[in-house]
Every structure is written in structure tokens, then in C-alpha cells.
Design brief:
Elements: E1 2-7, H1 11-14, E2 22-27, H2 30-36, E3 42-44, H3 50-59, E4 65-67, H4 78-83, E5 87-89, H5 96-111, H6 114-122, E6 140-144, H7 148-158, E7 163-167, E8 190-193, H8 207-212, E9 218-221, H9 230-239, E10 244-247, E11 267-269, H10 281-298
Parallel strand pairs: 1-2, 1-3, 3-4, 4-5, 6-7, 6-8, 8-9, 9-10, 10-11
């Protein structure tokens, strides 16, 4: 029997479908997980808070395969997991549809001034003109990150007749390479961040990049808060050197109540809700896990596997 230590959150969707070679050990708290962790050959250690997950992973000294619903696992001890030879599958693609839809919603809401429309309704005020007159059609988008989420963002924005230029390592087919996008920032109306959080991407948008953007440029971040140097972004928004920032992620999270981003009229903060705006996340994760159990038992590669050296 192979012992699998798993969160009770996923139990109703997984337990009836487990093969007979798996011995499930369920936990409902950090303390229970830490107690069970050394027995785990397969681990699904997801909790609502990320710091305890890293602690549990460190305690899982016999772990061979770690699974998670989280797409970004930069908070986990990836170096230690690599050293121990652990295979890691993450949640890449699980929330891709809803996050792509969220990006479209944010962009349309900004372009049409929809926040002001909602506020007018709350005031019972009949507006005689639209507070937003921007059209997406014909505008140019720089898309940093063309993974599962970025690919869906691209097709949806192209359906609005936007010109989307992605950045990817291989280049080709109208894409820019990683070393080319900074010099072209001034050509774009929208800059969308959909990259993983790594040492390479940390603070990839700072004072220099913000200064190179158009005055009408809008920054959209659904990646991780630390890919943007936040104090530089606040300065650019206060000076209105760019038009706006639409931020599903911040650094830190939750954003402190006294942080200036809350009070800026040209910033929207949506509290890292984009991946939660849907109902099928756990079902998709359970389906993928059960399929991967079959692959694992047959000695076939499980997917999607993280590159622990690259961090994604």
C-alpha cells in the first residue's frame, strides 16, 4: 500500500475514486498534517495559508510525489524537494479559464468606467454620459507570459480585435523574446503580467519600465505581486505617468489597510480573487489527481510537472 496524506477539503471528491493500492491519511489541520507527513509517499498538503504548507513539506521526509491545487508554489522549499528527488505537480491550468475571464472583465470595467456607473447607481443618480469611452478594439497588448493562463487571455482579447504581442523564450509567430520587450514598452496600450514568480521575474516592472510606458498605458497584474516593484508603481500612479493599474495581486497580501494603493482612483485592487471566481476548481483538481494516480502506478509521468530549478 502507498500512503497518501491529503487535505480533508478534497476528501469527498477523491475518496470514492481512490484505487485499492492507495492508503489515504486525511488531515484537517496543520498539526494533524505535520504528524502524518513523515508517512507520506504521496502528499497533497494544501491549506488556505501557504506558510504551514512549506513546513509540512519539510516534514515529509519519505515523500516521492507532491501534488497541489496551487499554480504558483514559490513559497514551498523547492530546493529541498529537488534535493530529495520529489516529483511535484501543481495546479497550472486549473483556474486558467476563470482568470482569463477576470482579465477581460477588469479591462472592460476600466475602459467603460464601470466602477463609476455602479457608484452612480448606489447614489440613485442617472448619468447622462458614459464615464469611460475607451474601446478595446484596435488597441495593442503586451502579454508577458504565454502559459495556460496567458494563452487563454490571448485568444479572448483577440476576439475583441485587439493586437496581442506575447513574450516567450522561443520568439516566433509575432512574439517577442525576453530580451526584447523592454525597448518596445512605449508601443503598447496595455501591459498584462501572467508570468510565474521567480528570481528572474521578481520586480521585472519597476521605475524604468513604468517610465517607458505610454501615458494611456494600463498595467494588468494577475501573476504575483512581487513581479512589480510596488513603491515604483504607486509613484507612477500618483504622478499619472501611466493611466491605471488593475491589480488582482499585491505585495504583500492581504494589502495593509493604510496602503496608498487603496486610495488611488487609478488603481483597482481585486484581492487575488480571479482564480476563486468559479465553482469547479476542486472538481478539476480531483479529476487530474485521480488520472495522475493511474499514471503514477503504471510508472508513467504525472502532469503537469514543475521544473524545480526554474521554479515553475
Amino acid at each position: 500500500m502507498t500512503k497518501a496524506v491529503m487535505s480533508a477539503m478534497i476528501r469527498p471528491l477523491v475518496e470514492p475514486r481512490l484505487p485499492d493500492w492507495v492508503e489515504p491519511l486525511w488531515f484537517a489541520s496543520k498539526d494533524e498534517a505535520l504528524k502524518l507527513a513523515p508517512e507520506a509517499e504521496i502528499g497533497w498538503f494544501d491549506l488556505n495559508e501557504t506558510a504551514p504548507m512549506a513546513e509540512i513539506a519539510q516534514a515529509a521526509t519519505n515523500l516521492k510525489w507532491l501534488n497541489s491545487i496551487y499554480a504558483g508554489l514559490d513559497f514551498m522549499p523547492l530546493g529541498l524537494l529537488k534535493e530529495r528527488g520529489v516529483t511535484v505537480t501543481n495546479g497550472v491550468g486549473i483556474n486558467a479559464i476563470t482568470i482569463a475571464e477576470y482579465v477581460v472583465m477588469l479591462m472592460l470595467a476600466h475602459a467603460k468606467g464601470y466602477r463609476e456607473v455602479v457608484r452612480a447607481q448606489d447614489r440613485r443618480e442617472w448619468l447622462t454620459d458614459s464615464p469611460g469611452k475607451r474601446e478595446l478594439a484596435g488597441e495593442r497588448v503586451l502579454l508577458l507570459g504565454l502559459g495556460a493562463i496567458g494563452s487563454l487571455i490571448k485568444t479572448r482579447l483577440e476576439a475583441f480585435d485587439m493586437k496581442v504581442i506575447p513574450v516567450r523564450r522561443s520568439g516566433g509567430e509575432g512574439a517577442l523574446r525576453p530580451g526584447q520587450w523592454r525597448e518596445k514598452l512605449g508601443e503598447f496600450d496595455w501591459v498584462i503580467l501572467a508570468v510565474p514568480s521567480t528570481e528572474e521575474t521578481r520586480h521585472m516592472i519597476g521605475e524604468m519600465e513604468l517610465a517607458a510606458m505610454r501615458p494611456n498605458a494600463v498595467l494588468v497584474n494577475i501573476a504575483r505581486g512581487d513581479v512589480v516593484k510596488q513603491e515604483d508603481l504607486v509613484a507612477a500612479l500618483e504622478a499619472k505617468t501611466i493611466e491605471a493599474a488593475l491589480l488582482d495581486v499585491t505585495d504583500p497580501e492581504p494589502l495593509p489597510e493604510d496602503h496608498p494603493l487603496w486610495g488611488l482612483g487609478n488603481a483597482q485592487v481585486t484581492m487575488h480573487l480571479s482564480g476563486r471566481a468559479q465553482t469547479r476548481m476542486f472538481m478539476r483538481s480531483a479529476d487530474r489527481f485521480i488520472e495522475n494516480l493511474d499514471r503514477w502506478h503504471r510508472g508513467e509521468p504525472v502532469e503537469p510537472q514543475m521544473d524545480l530549478s526554474a521554479g515553475y
